[in-house]
Amino acid sequence: MKEILLNLKEEAFKKFQSESDIKKFLDNILKFNNYSFNNQILIWLQNPNAEYVSSFKTFSKMGYKINKGTKGIKIFIPNFYNLVKIKVDDSKFEIKPYYMLTDDEKKRYRDKNDESISFYKQKLSGFSLGNVFDAKDTRMPMDVINQELNPILNDNKADEIMDIFIKTIYNDGFKVKYKEISSTAKGYCDFEKKEIVVRKGLGSLMQLKVLIHEYAHSLAHKHLENNNRDYREYRNQYETEAESIAYCVSKYLGLNSNDYSLTYLYSWSKDKDFKEIDESFSTIVNYSKRIINNFEKFYNRKFDLYSEEMGSISI
Questions:
Q1: Disulfide-capable partner of 191 in 47, 180, 208, 225 (CB 3.0 to 4.6 Å)?
Q2: Is pTM beyond 0.85 here?
């Protein structure tokens, strides 16, 4: 399965023929945020124009049917089995898969008043292929979906968003400082002091974009601490990754993303071998998702909201 997946991913990357292809793939990170990098690649390979995908069951719960003749998009679905904890004595437990329990043990397990057998954890047993479908293959009103999921952030709301974003950064162990910077840089990440520094005097939206870019460095490039030589040697790669992560997160927040040059990412990636591209795109996808999810937790907590995960599948 790993070999098949690697071949599919290599084929998918070969389809990046222009900057617009790169942009379309990165935009999909937002739409398929609940899906793993590998499944995002599979979705892209089969339907690069997919908007919002989910399972047949999820669409049915929402009251929408899949159009007749629609071909599903194949993704990997993890399969799990339950491990249970069986009490031997006051200090010892035996761990056993649920399917190996006797009928009497299963009865005790289901009895809420019996604590001799209890759930321990789930364990991955393998993967199977499943189908998801694009929202365009239903009668869902796409204009309403786009409006709800892709709001435009204006200047008045930038300060509010930035306050939440700074709390997100602090939660990951970095402080945010505003300083005069002698160079032309708008900001930088100081791994030694655990600080993200932003140039004083920038407008709210630009401050937020700088914060996102440097936050991406702080998470994705921790190995650069006390390793300036590695940064100088692979600077283009690290800056490409941070800028691409910043593009995805900025798009999610509703920031104007026109000033992000994805031509740079395309130019960098087309001269690299598959392993390098795969590793960098994996970094971009995974840390974009992490930053978005971290931000959502603080945002939902502040406004007493919750986010229902729909069709969450990972591999």
A1: 225
A2: no
